[in-house]
Write a structure and sequence with these properties.
Elements lengths: L5 H6 L2 H6 L16 H4 L35 E3 L2 E2 L2 H12 L6 H13 L7 E4 L4 H7 L3 H13 L8 E3 L12 H8 L3 E3 L8 E9 L3 H12 L4 E9 L2
Parallel strand pairs: 1-7, 2-7, 3-6, 6-7
Antiparallel strand pairs: 4-5
Helix pairs in contact: 5-7, 8-9
């Protein structure tokens, strides 16, 4: 996995910071979207996580989330738990057009990968349905994927994995089985050359892994040999 020096990436944003001052989402302090004090309150997934679904566990031999499920994706990883200031930041990014958070979030994804890097050929964002994309105006996962692509110097392929069915929101109250059923037929590949490739899927939040798993199913059918997922946060 090739990488680019982060100082150059951060320096390129200095002019934008001068023109458009940043205010902390957590406390309102000027300077950063997430100040050091608020970021210190973020909940991290930690080092004791399931190697398959990425959720924190106490017994590495037994993960209640995925031990009795059919998993197609090889692994899922995320730096944060979807709670507190991270939850608010993701909501701002996803629903309130705060696209400028993408570079900051991508650095967190990069940091999550650098100590135990995957062998990756291509980065693929989890797609939105075309109707949802028109409503929102952008795919937040694609913004993350393109920023991560620049940091890792690995190509990002968009519009080759598509969401053909507009599934309802996968609310946390639904069971994992219900989520799997909702998204199992939602995706397809169109014109992408995934044969023999190692793919990194990128999403903002993973609740049960159902969406990642559904994407991995069609990528596997298209010939991908390894499929990993990375999300900014896991919803427990």
């Amino acid at each position: 996995m090739k990488t680019l020096p982060l100082p150059a990436v951060r320096a390129s944003r200095v002019v934008l910071d001068l023109l458009f001052p940043r205010w902390c989402i957590g406390c309102g302090k000027e300077g950063e979207f997430l100040c050091d004090s608020c970021l210190a309150t973020a909940e991290y997934t930690g080092v004791d996580t399931c190697p398959r679904c990425g959720r924190p566990i106490t017994n590495s031999a037994n993960c209640n989330n995925c031990s009795h499920s059919e998993w197609i994706i090889d692994s899922i990883r995320a730096p944060f738990i979807f709670h507190g200031v991270i939850r608010e930041a993701v909501h701002q990014f996803k629903y309130r057009n705060l696209r400028a958070l993408a570079p900051l979030f991508a650095i967190s994804l990069y940091d999550c990968l650098k100590n135990k890097p995957f062998d990756i050929d291509v980065i693929v964002p989890v797609p939105l349905h075309s109707r949802r994309l028109r409503e929102r105006g952008y795919n937040q996962s694609a913004l993350l994927a393109h920023e991560l692509s620049r940091l890792l110097d690995i190509p990002c392929v968009e519009n080759r994995l598509v969401r053909r069915i507009a599934t309802p929101s996968l609310v946390s109250s639904a069971s994992r089985e219900a989520r799997l059923a909702l998204v199992s037929q939602a995706f397809e590949t169109r014109g992408g050359d995934f044969a023999g490739k190692h793919v990194l899927l990128v999403d903002d939040v993973s609740t049960s892994g159902a969406t990642f798993n559904a994407c991995a199913r069609v990528l596997r059918e298209a010939g991908a040999v390894k499929i990993h997922g990375i999300a900014l946060a896991l919803e427990l």
